[in-house]
Amino acid sequence: MAFCQNPKLAAERLLMRRARRLTMRIRLLLSSLVIATAVFGFNTALLSQQTPTPQMTSGSSAKAFRDEVIAGIPLQELTTEAQSKITEIIQNPSLYRRLPVSNIEVDPEYFILLARYPEIVVSIWRLMGVTQMATERKGPFSLHSDDGAGTISDIELVYGTDNYHLYYAVGEYSGPMNRRPLQGRCVIVLRTQFQAAPSGGTMAVNQLDVFLKVDNAAAGFVARTLSPIVGRTADHNFIESLIFLQRLNETTEKNGPGVQGMAYRLEGLTDEVQQMFVNVAGNVFERKQLRDTPPATSTPKLPIVAPPTTSQRISDVYQR
Q: How many CB atoms are closer than 10 A to CB 243?
């Protein structure tokens, strides 16, 4: 006798399988967009210099946070095209997430470099053999990434200061389980506050706000419905990226020349970005050496000043 499956049960199982596949694609897309731009991790509601902000242990999608970060986006300082792209996403996102506040000890110059040139971190990961992601610098403020698993992203740094970075990203996922590519757009607000660390170095207080718009009605619905799952994936990626940054900073402070040598082995960097990495790594190492060097106790020697020549005035010599 042939087995007769309950039509209602079969339909429910089919729906669940499709939902699981769609959820996985959304997670992959969001992970790619977040890692591609926040691979270097970053930042919370312009943290007040006077009022310390408590550290969040988990992310949040609260409307109050969303309204606050939107109010702080410097739209008036962007081009008309950038304003239009950003506004379309932040006003009606499929998913909003404020990632956990995380503190790491890191040199400010190093942090800013890696925030603006995430391909450095990706190249290090590739050298370590822990990722297949590839990146390509397309312009001074734009980057293309391919995670090697079906997701490609184009990331643009729309606005940046030492404490505030605004990114716009477009991503697409193509896999064997979906008939058409799943496309999404993302706005990422990265804010950082630098504070003195007990060790004498610098602590970076970091938080990231992510607005994701999936260009598919069904996928957008699933993203909103399953936002806790998607959000935890983003939280984990963000925190892990920051931990890696701190370890890279520690390694550079201990062995700057070694990190500089590694820089010349990295693939996928332009000559300009590679040289910036070498220079900043050297600066980080030197600053650490200076912090660890005890102050001199001997009386400093006065500088030797050569007698003025007939063509020099005495005031010129002492104003050097």
A: 13
